[in-house]
């Protein structure tokens, strides 16, 4: 059996151990310390914001962001539906209700049109959301200009879920820095990783301070342990922050590498009928965290599941696109706004036809060749098997 090719696996630079060793030699084996401080500084400098508050996960960072925006029991929060469940789960942690918003075709991310309709209704019902969680999927920036314009009109802050888009840019600004608060993830499969971790980034010092306070069990300033509000244990360990420091140093290389991988897929596979790669919005740069594409069944003759199974036989991991959250059993009966009321939801169509290809920055040239050859072979075999109607 050929060695397994994974979708996206951790890619260390070699410098991680230097910072981990520093933590050991100074005995900073704690959820605070010099690596945490330096990682926060470097991340903020990279993103071009006032500061960062690093956390135990991206999910934790979203939870903190919503708490800081005073989301509480009975409140309403809007969220992209085409995403990983972690984008929305913290809404439930806080006892708030979610309304899901469809994607639009140019970016696959939140539809400004659907958002506007949802806000119009919410206003009529006298129940505006406390926050809007906009996700930048697979590295692609959402239409932030339009989304910010609508949300500002109603005075609702945007939390940018940039878990998958660290290193991407929107009109020269780093993804995750356009909303009121941005969040990143350093989970093992993301473009850089600390094995597990996340960050909240922001230009507002008070929010950053609040994030660190809440993430450290909300201890008041007192000699004894005193607590006036409920907090969390969400800070990142000084050892993991050491990994993060080294990973951040190579982030731009990782972005270039993933973009090269994307380009090669496009060059090699575009000739196959019925494949469409995820677009890149004008004025933005995607980190191409995962190469994703849709398959037109009428031309490609294969469903995503058939292709996933074919690739699996060759020990290659591919995956469906995210199953929209409004289709998830756990979110049945949740309100959902479509991009276009009269037609099928954009993200439903993407889910039904889309697939992610292996895109790790540590994938070798030969490994990518294996992916390409296996996919081409699956396509030509399928073509050959399609019975030609007898006239
Ligand atoms: C990975 C991811 C998260 C959650 O990050 P964790 O660090 O795994 O908690 C949130 N949103 C999106 C879109 C993600 O892909």
From TrEMBL:
It comes from the Bacteria. InterPro entries: DegT/StrS_aminotransferase, PyrdxlP-dep_Trfase, PyrdxlP-dep_Trfase_major, PyrdxlP-dep_Trfase_small. Keywords: Aminotransferase, Pyridoxal phosphate, Transferase. CDD domains: AHBA_syn (cd00616). Pfam families: DegT_DnrJ_EryC1 (PF01041). One of its GO terms (molecular function) is transaminase activity. Belongs to the DegT/DnrJ/EryC1 family. This is DegT/DnrJ/EryC1/StrS family aminotransferase. It comes from Carnobacterium antarcticum.
């Amino acid at each position: 059996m050929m060695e397994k090719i994974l979708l996206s696996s951790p890619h260390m630079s070699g410098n991680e151990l230097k910072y981990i060793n520093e933590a050991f030699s100074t005995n900073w084996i704690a959820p605070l310390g010099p690596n945490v401080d330096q990682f926060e500084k470097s991340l903020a400098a990279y993103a071009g914001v006032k500061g960062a508050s690093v956390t135990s996960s991206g999910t934790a960072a979203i939870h903190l962001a919503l708490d800081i925006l005073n989301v509480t029991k009975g409140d309403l929060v809007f969220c992209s539906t085409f995403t990983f469940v972690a984008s929305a789960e913290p809404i439930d942690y806080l006892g708030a209700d979610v309304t899901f918003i469809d994607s639009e075709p140019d970016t696959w991310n939140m539809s400004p049109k659907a958002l506007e309709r949802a806000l119009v209704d919410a206003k009529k019902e006298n129940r505006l959301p406390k926050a809007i969680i906009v996700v930048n999927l697979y590295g692609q920036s959402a239409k932030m200009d339009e989304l910010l314009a609508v949300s500002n009109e109603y005075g609702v802050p945007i939390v940018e879920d940039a878990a998958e888009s660290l290193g991407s840019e929107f009109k020269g600004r780093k993804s995750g820095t356009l909303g009121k608060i941005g969040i990143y993830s350093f989970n093992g499969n993301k473009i850089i990783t600390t094995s597990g971790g996340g960050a909240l980034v922001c230009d507002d010092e008070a929010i950053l301070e609040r994030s660190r306070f809440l993430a450290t069990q909300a201890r008041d300033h007192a000699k004894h342990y005193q607590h006036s509000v409920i907090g969390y244990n969400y800070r990142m360990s000084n050892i993991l922050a050491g990994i993060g420091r080294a990973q951040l140093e190579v982030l731009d290389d990782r972005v270039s590498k993933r973009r090269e991988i994307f380009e090669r897929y496009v060059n090699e596979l575009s000739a196959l009928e019925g494949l469409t790669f995820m677009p890149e919005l004008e004025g933005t740069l995607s980190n191409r965290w995962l190469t994703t594409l849709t398959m037109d069944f009428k031309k490609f003759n294969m469903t995503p599941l058939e292709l996933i199974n074919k690739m699996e036989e060759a020990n290659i991991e591919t995956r469906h696109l995210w199953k929209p959250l409004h289709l998830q059993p756990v979110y049945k009966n949740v309100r959902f706004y479509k991009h276009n009321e009269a037609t099928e939801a954009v993200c439903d169509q993407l889910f039904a036809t889309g697939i992610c290809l292996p895109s790790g920055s540590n994938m070798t040239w030969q490994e990518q060749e294996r992916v390409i050859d296996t996919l081409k072979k699956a396509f030509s075999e399928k073509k050959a098997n399609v019975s030609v109607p007898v006239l």
